[in-house]
Design brief:
About 50% of the residues lie in helices and about 10% in strands. The protein has 16 helices and eight strands. The protein binds adenosine-5'-triphosphate and magnesium ion.
């Protein structure tokens, strides 16, 4: 190794040391959106209400049904996960319960959903050529022969219904009809779409039971502080994040009531403190201005054309989870959004014009960079002037109300 190499190595080590100094952070896990906290903040009555829909679940012939709706980041997914895990534990020695959680945005067709259910039972994949009715009966046999009860959560179920109608839900609700032995599956439907029930046929609504619909309200200031406090306590050194910091996070996140935003702001603030080599997060580390500040008014979106909105919605969905999206991905996301809302995607040239226009409007920023393969250049899109979640749900709301 030459002298030069050694120099580079030690420099690199220093830079890595700083990133991993861990003066604030002990365990990054609880800052992930997928972390299921041991208890939920401020959702006791909602959990109790959900539990009431599962009354008598300890008996073999009984199943529950529930519909959970609420805006983005109101804790629908985590609520159903927490409930599922809690009920499995509570029923130990009484009834064997298996939880299957299928996200219909990731698996939007009837056959994909059935495949996920089958996989959760650890069975062979459903074979091709069988009708959905036959696959459902195979799943039923599997559950019953093993003495199980399944709690099936269909998350973001509106995506499935919009694409394939509510036929699968109807079949699942009737899984035991005319058969010996009842109570095979409890069905939980989850959706952001407040008009979900309007998309269902009366026969389904009557089987689900209108009193089994629960709406989650957006979190308020105190709820959001509680959620970020829980994440901080689970991931950071004691005393590294003050009440003032948590309050500032709560104030900013309360604009949307989205729990994800409060976690995101906390993580960004921790990262800033760590980068600075400090052992305490300061109030100035909480900087929503760069991520979600209102230098763009959300209402600005209302004057855009339909396809500009669809392009923007695709981008917003990705940017809620990532910092940038490539133009290629933005195109694919746009096509998905078009499919979801029943529009025919415009040509690539028109799509590109829309992107440029959104950039001129200040809603998006675009930077081009060399691609890692070939000699091409790719454009990377980000959104620093405004909140992707706010803009995205504004467009979503309008599209679903059309
Ligand atoms: N009451 C709560 N207590 C603790 N953490 C929560 C609570 N509510 C939400 N969270 C956390 O906030 C994040 C967003 O919640 P979740 O994913 O459940 O929202 P959602 O309603 O399913 O959103 P979407 O509509 O986008 O799917 C998750 O990381 C979740 O763990
Ligand atoms: Mg969810």
């Amino acid at each position: 190794m030459s002298k030069n190499d050694v120099g580079t190595c030690s420099l690199m080590a220093e830079y890595l040391d700083r990133i991993g100094a861990g003066k604030v952070l002990v365990d990054r896990g609880p800052l992930s959106f997928d972390w299921t906290p041991p208890s939920l903040v401020g959702r006791n009555s909602e959990l109790a209400y959900l539990a009431s829909m599962f009354m008598g679940i300890g008996n073999d012939e009984v199943s529950g049904r529930a519909v959970v709706i609420g805006q983005v980041g109101t804790g629908k997914t985590v609520l159903t996960r927490r409930f599922g895990e809690d009920i499995i534990r509570r029923m130990e020695g009484i009834r064997k319960i298996v939880l299957s959680h299928v996200n219909c945005r990731n698996h939007p067709s009837t056959s994909q959903v059935l495949q996920q259910i089958a996989l959760s039972l650890d069975s062979r994949h459903p074979e091709r050529g069988f009708s959905s009715g036959e696959i459902i009966q195979t799943i039923r046999r599997n559950i019953r022969s093993r003495g199980l009860h399944m709690i099936l959560v269909l998350d973001e179920v509106d995506v499935l219904v919009r694409r394939d109608s509510s036929d699968l839900i109807y079949k699942l609700l009737r899984i035991d009809e005319g058969k010996s032995g009842q109570g095979t599956i409890s069905l939980v439907l989850v959706s952001q779409d407040l008009s979900l029930m309007g998309m269902m046929e009366p026969a389904i609504i009557s089987r689900l039971g209108e009193s089994n619909v629960m709406k989650l309200e957006p979190y308020d200031f105190n709820g959001l502080i509680g959620i970020s406090r829980q994440r901080y306590e689970a991931s950071c050194r004691p005393g590294s994040v003050s009440d003032e910091v948590l309050e500032k996070i709560g104030r900013f996140a309360a604009e949307t009531g989205d729990a994800r935003l409060s976690i995101e702001l906390l993580e960004a603030a921790i990262r800033r403190a760590e980068m600075d080599g400090r052992g305490e997060v300061s109030v100035n580390d909480v900087m929503p201005s760069t991520i979600r500040a209102a230098s763009v008014e959300p209402s600005q979106v209302d004057t855009l054309s339909i396809h500009q909105k669809l392009v923007l919605l695709g981008v917003c969905r990705r940017l809620r989870k990532e910092e940038v999206v490539s133009s290629g991905d933005a195109r694919k996301l746009y096509e998905l959004v078009c499919e979801e809302f029943g529009f025919k995607p415009r040509s690539y040239t028109t799509f590109w014009k829309h992107l440029k226009m959104l950039e001129t409007e200040g809603l998006l920023e675009a930077k081009s960079a060399n691609t890692s393969v070939g000699r091409g250049r790719t454009t990377y899109i980000s959104m620093t002037n405004t909140a992707p979640a706010t803009i995205g749900s504004r467009i979503e709301k309008e599209m679903t109300n059309r």
